[in-house]
Amino acid sequence: MPQEYIEIRGARENNLKNVSLRIPKRKITIFTGVSGSGKSSIVFDTIATESQRLLNENFSMFVRNFLPKFGQPDADSIENLSMSIVVDQKRMGGGSHSTVGTITDINTLLRLLFSRIGKPHVGPANLFGFNDPKGMCPECNGLGRKLDVDLGKFLDKSKSLNEGAILFPEYAVNSWYWSQLISTNMFDADKKLSKYTKKETDNLLYSEPMKIKTKVGAKDFNMTFEGIVNRFTNKYIKRDLKTMSERTQKQVEPYMTMGSCHLCKGARLSQAALKSKINGYNIADLTAMEITELIKVVRTLKEPAAESIIKALVERLQHLVDIGLEYLTLSRETDTLSGGESQRVKIVKHLGSSLTDVIYIFDEPSVGLHPRDVHRMNELLQRLRDKGNTVIVVEHDPDVIKVADHVVDIGPQAGLHGGEIVYEGSFANLLKASTVTGKHMKVKVPLKDEFRQPTGKLPVKNAKVNNLQNVSVDIPTGILTVVTGVAGSGKSSLINEVFFQQHPDAIVIDQSAVGVNSRSNPATYTGIMDDVRKAFASANKVNASLFSFNSKGACENCQGLGVIYTDLAFLSEAKTPCEVCEGRRFKDEVLEYKLNGKSISDVLAMNVQQALEYFEIPEVNKKLQAMSDVGLDYLSLGQPLSTLSGGECQRIKLASELHKKGSVYIMDEPTTGLHMSDIGHLMEVINRLVDTGNTAVVIEHNLHLIKNADWIIDMGPEGGSKGGTIMFEGTPKQLLSAKRSITSKYLRN
Question: Counting CB atoms within 10 angstroms of each CB, which of 6, 34, 504, 715 has the fewest?
Answer without folding.
Answer: 504
